[in-house]
Amino acid sequence: MQMPMTEIILPVHNGLSLLRDGLDAVLAYTSRRASRLSIVDDASDPVTAAWLRERAAAEPRWITLRRQDENLGFLATCNQAMARGDSAYVVLLNSDVLVSPGWLERLLACAEGDPRIAAVNPLSNRADNIDLPMAPGTSFLAMNGYLASQRQGRCHDVVTGVGFCLLLRRSALKQVGLFDPSYGYGYCEESDLCMRLIAAGFRTVVAEAVYVYHRGGGSFSDGHARYLHNRRLFDRRWGQDYRRQFRAFRRADPLRPVRHLFALPSRWEPTPALWQGARELLAEWRGRRSPQKLARLSVRHALRVATARRPCPRRALAQRLTPPGRLRVTYVLDRLVVAGGVLSVLQLVNELIRLGVEARVAALYEDPLIHDWRPLYTRPLIYRNARALLAECPDSDLVFATHWNTVDWVRQLLQTGRTRAAGYLIQDYEPWFFPDTAIAQRERVKAGYRLLPHRIVMSDWLRGRLAEDGHDSHKIPLGMDLGQFYPRSRARGPQPVVLAMARPGTPRRGFPATIAALAAVKQARPEVEIVLFGDRFLDRWRIPFPFRNEGLIIRQDRLAELYSGADVFLDGSEFQGFGRCALEAMACGAACVLTDLGGVLEYARHEDNALLTPPGQAAAMTAAILRLLDDPSLRRKLTDSGLTTAARYCHRLEARATLAWIEQRLTAGAAA
Q1: In this structure, is residue 664 part of a structural domain?
Q2: What is the pLDDT of residue 413?
């Protein structure tokens, strides 16, 4: 098919982490033959703007980059970009979307099949009434490949399209107009446009043969209020027609056949809903304590608990959806919760998927906050118990244990032939999770190190600990998402800020020494603002000084802002397997005070990029913090050196090194 000319419009306002993955996907999977990419930088921060200039300069014939010094928002930015062009089609693409192979060709094939089709959406994991969740254990790329082979040429009318990835026929836009500026910064503007297209005799459809990933959910900080305002405007214009058409759409349920392809039995799973409800009720109790709001929340969450269902993963479905010949790697966790070790696994899985691996995550529990915390380019396999995991985990080329209590599961998968090879991703020295008196438990954990044939560690310190126990290992340093952690622009207040990780419920994180050190700092420098994060219940502890409680931070952007706003960051842990937080703080420009034991020595150098103190020595920590507060030149020196250090620890490098190691192990195993 001769492709008509298409302009892809990509508005960008910050969000560098997902933008990097999204733009990489556009560059990798989009034909240059009859398309061009127009990126509009809608007043992004300097780091994002510089990255965009670098990428645009690499393909000047295909990419046009325009910069707006004032943030106009998605609606106005798209209108200006659409008004400038003359291509037959335009695609509006959010910066938190990852496209997939053949995406543009198949969207165009759908539109070209009927001149009345004016708007085409792909299927996606997050797209309102046309979403299609990824099957458990299946990446968005595998979903796209399967749908391309099974649903080619199938498209269905929908009432309104969704703006995350929307192909529009330009001749139809000339007839009905662009987005209505009455919708301000956005919400409901694409629904209004689609209703105008339908009223003019055009069709808005979804193409079943295309699947893309959409992060979603982060458009506006005032999203709910903005949506309600714009929805009232939309309903005044289209309410009766929209409700009639939407009821007809629901009755027809045109996506039922494609959704049925991925149908699974489900089970009642109340635990995640219980936790989510408890969090919201606790937040309201700590806030306004409105009896009416508490009552409404209680009723709402009781209904959610009563109706909470989770699909039961099936080995056969995941294996059927896996593209032939694709490398299959599975990481087994006991629980998917908000924790640094889990974050390391999830970002590694995402990067392996981007590198062409069918990487999976298997666990026995999933905290709903995971999906607000970190994007995930596959859907986790969540099993009722270990027995179900062992029975239904898809076949793999390599399976990793990630915690001492997952080692035996992985060993059984290896022994039963469900994986060609097995390894242990060791992120911390786990015997030390238990007190010195728990000798039997420590020995049990140590015994797990010899149950699997291969071990990966993240630091020389951890490799040394395992060597002392008689086990060899391969070091692949941890990587950070440098699109997430970089110095953010912020207005400096008059008070110096000391930021510290405080996790009283986690063993060996040095909470008593941390609090004692900060109390002495506050006594010596009353003007210092102390900020603590890392635990949801810090206010239950007797902390002898005023502080700002940031609690358990879910939004990684918020964490980067805190690091960037701190003059000094303190991690008083007794040891770390690597020390992610300190490296994140360095990447954001904070001067660090750390302890001199454990994996932080992989990158931390005393008097060069950090000040190091003995673990548990509160007086030494206090002296180091005061020294940095009193010596701006030393603080600048540590900050500059820390930025250089952090730049070497990229999660993309970690993923490439991991993939090379996996391929070497599998090749060696095949030769043997």
Answers
A1: no
A2: 98
